[in-house]
Amino acid sequence: MLKLIREDEKRTAEEKLEALLLEGLNSGDPIEITPEYWEGKRQQLIKRHQQRTSAR
After folding, report:
1. What are the two backbone dihedrals, phi and then psi, of residue 31, each rounded to the nearest 5 degrees?
2. What residue segments make up the domains of the chain, in order of their start?
3. Cβ distance 37 to 31 under 8 Å?
4. Rounded to the nearest 5 degrees, what angle is found at the Cα of 42, between the Cα atoms of 50 and 18?
5. Using CA atoms, how far apart are residues 21 and 6, in angstroms rounded to an integer?
6. pLDDT at 55 over 80
7. Is 56 exposed, middle or buried (0-12, 13-18, 19+ CB in 10 A)?
8. Distance (Å, rounded) from C-alpha 42 to C-alpha 11?
9. How far is CA 3 from CA 14, 17, 36, in A?
10. Helix, strand, coil: what percent of the chain each, to 5?
11. Which tens digit of pLDDT belongs to each residue from 2-54?
């Protein structure tokens, strides 16, 4: 019985993952991920963190 529950949970998780992957693929035009892209993301996160911590 426990095996059936785990198999069902695994199947459900795989279906959710597939749906999320398809959503990502259909979310718009692809972008090139470069070191500059990651640096920009890093700076955005630092700025957002600083804004949130200074608002306290």
Report:
1. -120, 150
2. 1-26
3. yes
4. 115
5. 22
6. no
7. exposed
8. 35
9. 16, 21, 47
10. 80, 0, 20
11. 999 999 999 999 999 999 999 999 999 989 999 999 999 999 999 999 999 98
DSSP one-letter string for 5-43 = HHHHHHHHHHHHHHHHHHHHHTSSS-----HHHHHHHHH
- Give the torsion sign (CA, 30, 35, 37, 38): positive
pLDDT at residue 13 in the model: 98
- The alpha-carbon radius of gyration of the chain (Å, integer) is 19
Hey, what are 6's tokens?
Answer: 């785990």
For the chain, how far is it from start to end, CA to CA, in angstroms?
50
